[in-house]
Amino acid sequence: VSNCFDTGTLAGLRVHITAGPTQEPLDPVRYISNxxxxxxxxxxxxxxxxxxxxxxxxxxxxxxxxxxxxKRISVTTAQEMLSAxxxxxxxxxxxxxxxxxxxxRPTAIAEHKIKKGNEEIMELHLxxxxxxxxxVASLENKPFTVGFAAETRDVINYARGKLAKKGLDMxxxxxxxxxxxxxxxxxxxxxxxxxxxxxxxxxxxxxQLAVQLIEQIAKHYKTSK
Length: 225
Ligand code: CTP
Ligand code: CA
Hints:
Elements: E1 14-19, E2 24-27, E3 30-32, H1 39-50, E4 54-59, E5 71-74, H2 78-87, E6 94-97, E7 104-106, E8 126-128, H3 132-137, E9 144-151, H4 155-166, E10 170-175, E11 187-194, E12 197-205, H5 206-224
Parallel strand pairs: 1-4, 1-6, 4-5, 6-9, 9-10
Antiparallel strand pairs: 2-3, 7-8, 10-11, 11-12
Helix pairs in contact: 1-5
Bound molecules: cytidine-5'-triphosphate and calcium ion.
The site of cytidine-5'-triphosphate has 15 residues, from helix 3 and strand 9.
């Protein structure tokens, strides 16, 4: 597929996408993270590029090749992902938060490897990470902002709650309670939720889903202008 930079649905637009997990260090050899593969975010970066957008991919640590024609910024922690997201935000028309950001990080990073003690129970102290997509959506000159919601129950209600609370234009609700879809898998099924609309996209490959999501995002972006 060639890039239709002049004719695609996102021609001339700048799309920023966060992807993958974040890693929050505990000490020089350990971290807290999650099983996000980054596949959905990378597939979105590819689909947005194919639709003619100039894409910046702000990526946590993943095992994926850099998509062609995409500017990738590699980060490790949520705080780094926030800085990278805000650094070029004035250039951004559409911000898609696909990353599985660690909600909490250790309050302090030990300078040396933490030694095993005699006690059976060990307590970790964690502090809340900044909410990247909510921070972007609260900016005065905010881009069209899209979030993801990974839920195991009451999926649409929780997603609607996040849409409102974070000030998003759209949220992609993802039921991760079903085996074989969502987190760390090749396929996904989602429901796209805006303030007054709801569209289901049945289970398909993340590549196919990304193409459909980008089409829908482009449509809603244009209606919002
Ligand atoms: N998100 C973010 N920064 C965070 C946490 C989440 O940008 N610190 C974004 C995710 O990239 C996603 C959306 O917020 O687009 C929802 O993430 P999710 O983990 O489902 O929601 P939370 O608000 O963290 O709530 P909870 O995990 O308790 O369900
Ligand atoms: Ca979370």
